[in-house]
Amino acid sequence: MTRHTAGRLLIAAGVLVWLGFAVAWLAGAHPDAGRFVPFHLAGVIPGTVLTRWRRRGPENG
């Protein structure tokens, strides 16, 4: 698996965290969004770094 693919999977997992929030909210509960944000960010931030990070070598400066 490449870094780019792993990054995309982490981003998808971070976004899918909100599916649990939506299910709870639609079921009539009042979920606290603050409990979902750390899990969202734990997937999205490293995923973004993995998809955007490029190796710096002689050809890239």
Topology:
Blueprint: H1 3-26, H2 37-52
Helix pairs in contact: 1-2
Explain how this protein is built:
- The protein is elongated.
- α1 (about 5-25) packs antiparallel against α2.
- The chain has one domain.
- The protein is built from two helices and no strands.
- The chain is mainly alpha-helical.
- The chain starts with a helix and ends in a 9-residue tail after the last helix.
- The longest helix is centred in the N-terminal third of the chain and has 24 residues, at about 5-25.
Secondary-structure element series: HH
The fraction of residues assigned to DSSP E strands is under 5%
Rg calc: 16 Å
Distance, first to last CA: 26 Å
Characterize the largest beta sheet: strand count, sense, and whether it forms a barrel: none
Unreliable stretches: none
Q: How much helix, percentage-wise, in residues?
A: 55-70%
Count of the domains: 1
Total DSSP E strands: 0
The SS-based structural class is mainly alpha
Q: What is the global morphology? A: elongated
Alpha plus pi helix count: 2
Average pLDDT over all residues: 90
Summarize the structure.
The protein is mainly α.
